[in-house]
Amino acid sequence: MRVMITTVTCGGGHVAAAGALEEAWKELRPDDVVDKVDLVKFFSAIHRKLYSDGYVTLVNHAPELWGYVFGKTDRPEAVRRLSKLRRLFPSKSRSRFAKHVQEFRPDVVLCTHYLPLETLEKMRGKANGERDSKSRVGVGPATGERLDGKWGRRGTSPILCPMVATVVTDFEAHALWMNGRSDVYFVAAHETRARLLARGAIAQNIVTTGIPVASKFASKIDLKAARREMGLRDDLPAVLVPSGGFGMGPVGKIVDEVDKVDGSVQILVVTGRNEALRKELAKADRRHPTRVFGFVTNMHELMAISDLIITKPGGLTSSEALAMGKPLLIINPIPGQEAANSDFLLEHGVAAKVNRAEDIPFRLGQFLGSKKLVEMGRAARALGRPDAARAICEEVVRRFGAEHPDRLR
């Protein structure tokens, strides 16, 4: 099989989910050809800066504005209007992506971001013989029948109809996830599934698997050895403060407040690619033992040795913590997808929430060493889906094989 995994660098979660799927697919079917594609590579320089950097700037400096946009567009009719508007202004980035798909000729496309869906739907329409609204020339076979994954030709241009799988990377599905045709949706929870059903998705085409995380988040960690290697004490509870790959959020303020907690604690901080933040935090004097890390590849070990994680509730970070059975203290969720994730986590008893950083010392004093923290960890372990990536890949293979048994080798 030829498999394409598409994502978009817009925050770190979509990319991490794509990486988890790539890892799982190669383990499941090592002889397949897998192409992981970040659509940002097809953007112009200015488009790339506006899309990726613009998102980070907006959620950091004007989160209320982002929440407003999120809410206004979270309606199917609003998404349809946006799609019509985009069709009036053809995008070179979309055409570059379409060309890449045609050249790679995938049997299956897995999407961990909604952006590829509209382009794939347009390609599907052409492959089925529909007329393009611009050229008014159908590119499907003369009879207009579906190609169902087979390749055809009109002149020298290949046309394609791959199986499309959408992997929703938050606990609530925004309307944009349905902006285009998908053969199957993979979702985080039954509540996510209910949202898609309410918006018209077909029940048998929605599978609840959890959000895909890397296999290392299911691994067994020697906690004493890991703490010793990192220079940590075994007799102190550890609090982890991750900031995501981009070093977003008021991490410094959070760490300052954690350092005020009464009793004994050790603090682990991850600043991601924000080197300036790492240097600033590393030089500060603190009353509690504190380790400051930059970009790390052993987040699973840092989570494993931590008793509590203080974080913004991104879909991937939350799913990684759940896979490790770790309770969360949520702070500053971004209005929109993170606010919805926060509601989900609180409802299931795996997280608590503070509205201001200065509330952290009191809440930590309540939680550390308490029965409540143990209960939250138990609930997190029950809710976690460490094998989600493999489950998604297995279901895609099963569905593709049922439709094309002659091509599943």
Task: Walk me through the structure.
44% of the residues lie in helices and 15% in strands. It is α/β, with parallel strands linked by helices and 409 residues long. The chain folds into two domains: 2-213 and 387-403, 3-Layer(aba) Sandwich (Rossmann fold); 216-383, Rossmann fold, CATH 3.40.50. The chain has a six-stranded parallel beta sheet, with helices on both faces. The protein has a six-stranded parallel beta sheet with strand order 11-10-9-12-13-14, with helices on both faces. Strands 4-5 form a two-stranded antiparallel sheet. Helix 1 crosses helix 16, helix 2 (45-61) crosses helix 3 (63-73) and helix 5 packs across helix 6. The longest helix has 17 residues, at 45-61. The radius of gyration is 23 Å and the shape is globular. The termini are close together.
